[in-house]
Amino acid sequence: MQQLEIAEQTPLDMAPVVLCAYELGDYINQSAEVADYLYWKNEVEHNPEVASLRARFNRAKEFFSECERFGRFHPDYHTAKDKVKAVEAEMAQVECIRRYKEAEEVVDTLLYDVSLMIAESVSGSIKVPGNNPLPSGGCGGGGSCSCGSGGCG
Question: Where does residue 100 rank: exposed (0-12), middle (13-18), buried (19+ CB within 10 A)?
């Protein structure tokens, strides 16, 4: 009888993996998407209108935080909340902020897609977290959840 040999598991040499990760990071950093993101980030950081709006927004948030401690029963709660929303609406009208947020979303999606490809190349059941606060699909938005079949809870 021939004896079956059981292959020993050897630890993964992380050096090549880390080198590939840095190389992939370099490719991503050299992409048009990241260049666009960095351009608009710089525009936001050096725009005097944005600086003024940011200061107003921070003051409005502080005022709302003080009111929020007492909840909607605080006499200024709704006024404070409305001030925060008004400044947010003003910020959404500034082109460089709007373009920055769009570019940030594009880069976030790119990084998520790359992470998903890597995870799926290892196993179809590995979950990749996203930045979406309202994930679509099962438990964590990873895609292969067994909640529908009673597996969660």
Answer: buried
Distance of CA 53 to the CA centre of its chain: 23
Q: Cβ of 64: how many Cβ atoms within 10 Å?
A: 19
Residues of the chain with pLDDT under 50: 141-142, 146-153
Instruction: From 109, 114, 106, 115, select the one nearest 38 (Cα to Cα).
Output: 106
CA distance 94 to 53: 10
Closest by alpha carbon to 40, among 101, 100, 93, 95? 100
For 97, counting Cβ atoms within 10 Å of its Cβ (0-12 exposed, 13-18 middle, 19+ buried), the class is buried
**pTM of the complete model:** 0.72
3-state helix vs strand vs coil in the chain, percent to 5: 65, 0, 35
Q: What pLDDT is stored for residue 107 in this prediction?
A: 97
For 147, the token pair is 């909640």
